[in-house]
Amino acid sequence: MTRLRANQGAGLTMAEVAAQAGVSRQAVYLHFADRTALLMALVHHVDEARGLAAKLSAIARAPSARAAVAAMVALQASDNPGLWPVAQIFDSLRQSDASVDAVWQNRLTHWRDTCHAVAERFQEEGALAPHLSLDPAADLLSTLTSPRLWEELVIGRGWSAERYRSHVTYLAVGALTH
Amino acid sequence: MTRLRANQGAGLTMAEVAAQAGVSRQAVYLHFADRTALLMALVHHVDEARGLAAKLSAIARAPSARAAVAAMVALQASDNPGLWPVAQIFDSLRQSDASVDAVWQNRLTHWRDTCHAVAERFQEEGALAPHLSLDPAADLLSTLTSPRLWEELVIGRGWSAERYRSHVTYLAVGALTH
DNA sequence: AAGTTACTTTACACTATGTCAAGTCCCAGT
DNA sequence: ACTGGGACTTGACATAGTGTAAAGTAACTT
Fold it and tell me: Do A163 and B136 touch (CB under 8 A)?
């Protein structure tokens, strides 16, 4: 199978995908049951290509809770520029396609679990803000480190990766510790 | 013209809109040039119906910067449940329709201006965090009070309006002052 | 009575998704 | 060398949604 390239993210049609892959429109349906299956395969592929699993385990092995947050934000800052076009398509398809939504939710859940583990480390270090319990802390952390917040600041407001990294790290650490 | 009702937000088709309005599909095109125009009118209508302008001026008249932030977060908490279905449609159409995007950007800009004014009040009160200048502060505030962040916590994580209100107010004030 | 307005029904063109069927090309196994 | 299967092709078709066009109707206005 020929390698796929993500287009600008807007109107990704099956015909376009086929053309980009240098193949007939029908050939695409020989590999993927439908558009949804294609998108799911794309996300899976992108994750593998970026070694997401390794990066997540690096977060788990960070020397401190603060360092873990810094690593999480840094991961967003480095990966989102390439991931964002795909995420765009997903986020819009999610509403009309239950299986896309399922994949999306699965990814979110995974990220939230990582956040929960980090919140636990704050608690173990006695640094968790007194007004926060674990679940709300994990929710806040996952929201502050979400691709959407990255998008709003970097794409929407033109922040540099470095400005995003430093401000959001500071913000997230502050949110969990004060 | 018969009153429109927003549907579940997913596949809002012109035929559905017409049916809900008790009118033929073609009649819709007598009032709105196309789907985009209909959506833009819908947003405008919803804004008016909710008295958005009045609420924004109330934020401007808040007794302190902190109170203004509290009012902004409270506005999100109270209005978003009704606004969200419309926002959903907009957010997904934005990618494929430049004029929807224009309306969307316009709204964002307006909100950002409000945030900028609040950031200035923090500065006047001498409460703005030393590492923040006005623009980044306004960007952070607008991001933390965005419908998306509300959605992630309230819709995505099941937070109550009250939990959202108190945590996010605390978070936003903290982000701007420490 | 005549015209305007707000619709109606019917029909069409266009685009995208997904299905179906028949045929081509090439490569591997026997 | 023959045969079968895999990967692809072209072409046709059904379906759903958007948007345009045309002709007709019913009610309200002047």
Answer: yes
Coil vs helix vs strand at A89:
helix
Rounded to whole angstroms, the Cα distance separating A140 from A126 reads 18
C-alpha span between B49 and B154 (Å, rounded): 23
Q: Rounded mean pLDDT of A149-176?
A: 97
Interface touch B153/A159, C-beta < 8 Å: no
CB B94 within 8 A of CB B104: yes
The answer to whether A130 faces chain B, any CB pair under 8 Å, is no
Look at B168 and B9; give whichever has higher pLDDT.
B168
Per-residue pLDDT tens digits for B112-139: 999 999 999 999 999 999 999 999 999 9
> Across the interface, which of A10, A156, A178 has its CB nearest the CB of B178?
A178
Which pLDDT does position B55 carry in this prediction? 92
Q: Phi-psi region for residue B160, left (φ > 0), alpha (ψ -120 to 50) or beta?
A: beta
Residue A53 has pLDDT above 90, yes or no: no
Nucleotides on chain C that have an atom closer than 7 A to a protein CB are 6-11, 16-21
B131 contacts in chain A (CB < 8 Å) = 170
d(CA B66, CA A79): 35
Which tokens sit at B7? 């549907």
Q: Is B148 on the interface with A (CB under 8 A)?
A: yes
Cα nearest neighbour of A105 on chain B: B156
Interface of B with A in 11-50 (CB under 8 A): 11
| Residue A14: burial class (beta carbons within 10 Å; 0-12, 13-18, 19+) | middle
Mean pLDDT of chain A: 89
Question: Which residues in chain A touch residue B10, judged by CB atoms under 8 angstroms apart?
Answer: 95-96
The pLDDT of residue B4 is 34
Q: Do A175 and B178 touch (CB under 8 A)?
A: no
Query: DSSP secondary-structure letter at A131?
Result: T
Residues with Cβ within 8 Å of A22's Cβ and at least 6 positions away in sequence, in order, are: A2
For residue A125, what pLDDT is reported?
96
Q: Specify the 3-state DSSP secondary structure of A100.
A: helix
Q: CA A87 to CA A103: how far, in whole Å?
A: 11
